Amino acid sequence: MKGILYTFFISMVPVIELRGGIPAGVAAGLPVFWAALVSIIGNMIPVPFVLFFIRKLLVWMEQKSSLLGRFAKMLRDKADANKEKVLKYEFWGLVLLVAIPLPGTGAYTGALVAAMVDMQIKRAVPAIFIGVVIAAIIVSLVTTGVVAMW
């Protein structure tokens, strides 16, 4: 149970997400399938909250202090840098953005970009979910050594 909770909470952390959750779960003794499943669930839980509240949070941060305002600007810039893919390819662009297991991609970035381009939640959540599952498969294959990443 300890390994499951460990994996679950690591997968909820921005930037780390399931890219760190799956290897951490396997290192904690979970079979790769269970590490991936728990990581997918943990990675998806914050998504609706980001989609619903990120715009209000960014406005609040900008009004609260200059330090928080700079952080909010950094998040907006990150969304702007990735929104071309999403605007051009919509659903599949968002899937691709979330699925590529590289820094600056993932469920949080996908949800941030989807919110910033006003993508409907009923389209954003399935796209993010499909991307998270693809990322979990890739990370699982790399974690088990089936596929080597350079």
What features would you describe in this structure?
It is a single chain. The chain is 81% helix and 0% strand. The protein is built from 7 helices and no strands. It is globular.
Summarize the entry for a quick read.
With 150 residues, this protein is mostly helical. 81% of the residues lie in helices and 0% in strands.
List the keywords.
7 helices; 150 residues; mainly alpha
Radius of gyration: 16 Å
Q: SSE string, helix = H, strand = E?
A: HHHHHHH
Total DSSP E strands: 0
Helix content: over 70%
For this structure, the quaternary state is single chain
**How many domains make up the 3D coordinates?**
1
Low-confidence stretches: none
Separation of termini?
33 Å
Structural class: mainly alpha
Q: How many DSSP helices?
A: 7
Classify the beta-strand content into a percent band.
under 5%
Q: What do the pLDDT scores average to?
A: 89
Query: Quick one: overall form?
Result: globular
Biggest pleated-sheet summary: none
